[in-house]
Specification:
The protein has helices spanning 51-63, 69-79, 87-94, 120-131, and strands at residues 15-20, 30-34, 39-44, 109-115, 136-140. The protein is of the alpha/beta class and 150 residues long. Strands 1-2-3-4-5 form a 5-stranded mixed sheet. The chain is globular, with a radius of gyration of 16 Å.
């Protein structure tokens, strides 16, 4: 749902979803690119999130530390939402820099935890990481059914 509707957690920016977790694979739930070529690694929890979640997310980020364009293109193939070979063209369609080098796509990262709530330990770890310049965010969410429309 979030992979298909990234505007729900990114209301003020355009995001290009390039990958989604497949059952049985050790991978972040969603991989995306922002308009400046940053790889966004998103871990989604249906329930409470704690310090273990940040460890899991940082492990995924480490796997993509020096990711190549070809590796990201492989994720797009697994995502199976576009035709083969479209990653660079789709990225340029919404990129801030229309001459962004293909080799630089995904070289910088942002990491994000999306969960209904978290314990204070996770919030402290995220604040500490932010103080040291790690681009990490916690995005709380709630599910609303038709009966709770405003």
């Amino acid at each position: 749902w979030i992979a298909d509707n990234p505007q729900l957690i990114f209301p003020n920016e355009e995001i290009l979803t390039i990958g989604q977790s497949i059952s049985g694979r050790s991978m972040a739930d969603v991989l995306a690119l922002d308009t400046t070529g940053n790889l966004i690694i998103i871990e989604i929890k249906r329930d409470w999130s704690n310090r273990k979640t940040i460890g899991q997310l940082l492990e995924y980020a480490a796997k993509f530390k020096d990711v190549s364009y070809d590796r990201l293109a492989e994720e797009v193939k697994k995502y199976n939402k576009w035709e083969e070979g479209e990653l660079y063209d789709k990225f340029l369609d919404f990129a801030d820099d229309k001459e962004f080098p293909r080799k630089d796509i995904g070289k910088r990262q942002r990491v994000m935890i999306v969960a209904p709530d978290s314990d204070s330990g996770l919030k402290r770890v995220i604040d500490w990481l932010k103080d040291y310049g790690v681009p990490v965010e916690f995005v709380p969410f709630g599910v609303c059914q038709e009966s709770c429309r405003i």
